[in-house]
Design a protein that fits this description.
Helices cover about 35% and strands about 20% of the residues. It has 11 helices and 9 strands.
């Protein structure tokens, strides 16, 4: 029995064992005892995780894949969750414990997977996975780069992001139309921000909604004082600011509002 890839779920099954093993080996396995694989499909990556000194859990929305895994990975069966990762409360499984995330992520929800990880950053010290190449590059890119954006800044505020390697379409069934990229996120030692975190998210998202404008124009909805808008930082465009400058910008706005 094999599982048929479903277009509406964005499934592209990895068929290259070497790449599967290479992805499994990206995790350091330090600081946690559990790993959650998202979208395991037929378990090509799962089997290499099961060889490691860690407890593997998998979450899969596709009923056919779940049946396949339960039949072929009997020991894993109690830790197979037939759920939608984006809408599932992971603490029903992990109950506040730390865990890593790994996976060959469906392209259509990969950014949302990252955003949910950021929400749970207290529990996720490490995150490794395969994305559409340009999304992986965007997450890891630095200021001054045209692909640098919301995903880059918000992720790198809390994690060190490393682009590891590129994967060609030919190693998937069916092959996607684009290259894939594997990245590793390692949570920073200090992952709390020295500013209001909700405001930081809002400032970053609002700035990039009009990325070609200067911050003076893109942040008009914040009703900033003329005195603050005279600061040189407001003459820059969002893609020119590093993560630490966005933190500095948020602190300035915070003080201006009070």
């Amino acid at each position: 029995m094999s599982v048929k890839a479903k277009k509406h779920l964005g499934q592209h099954f990895l068929k290259d064992e070497n790449i599967a093993k290479k992805i499994a080996d990206t995790l350091s396995l330090k600081g946690y005892d559990d790993v959650l694989e998202i979208g395991p499909g037929m378990g090509v990556l799962t089997k290499y995780l099961l060889e490691k000194s860690i407890t593997t859990h998998v979450i899969e929305i596709d009923t056919e894949s779940v049946e396949y895994l339960k039949t072929n990975y009997l020991n894993l069966a109690p830790r197979i969750y037939e759920q939608d990762f984006l809408n599932y409360d992971l603490n029903t499984v992990f109950r506040g414990k730390s865990f890593a995330i790994i996976g060959n992520f469906p392209y259509n929800i990969s950014s949302q997977i990252v955003f949910k990880t950021l929400e749970m950053r207290d529990q996720i010290p490490e995150f490794s996975g395969m994305f559409q190449k340009e999304v992986a590059q965007r997450i890891c890119s630095k200021e001054g780069n045209k692909v640098y954006g919301i995903l880059s800044v918000l992720t790198q505020a809390f994690y060190n992001a490393d682009y590891l390697f590129t994967v060609p379409p030919s190693v998937f069934n069916p092959p996607p139309k684009v290259d894939s990229g594997v990245l590793l996120l390692t949570r920073k030692d200090n992952y709390t921000l020295p500013c209001d975190e909700k405001l930081f998210f809002r400032v970053v998202k609002t700035s990039f909604q009009q990325r070609r404008k200067t911050l003076r124009n893109s942040l008009k909805t914040f009703n900033l004082s003329d005195n603050l808008k005279a600061n040189a930082i407001f003459g820059q465009r969002p893609e020119q600011l590093s993560v630490s400058q966005f933190i500095e910008l948020t602190t300035l706005i915070e003080k201006d509002e009070n």
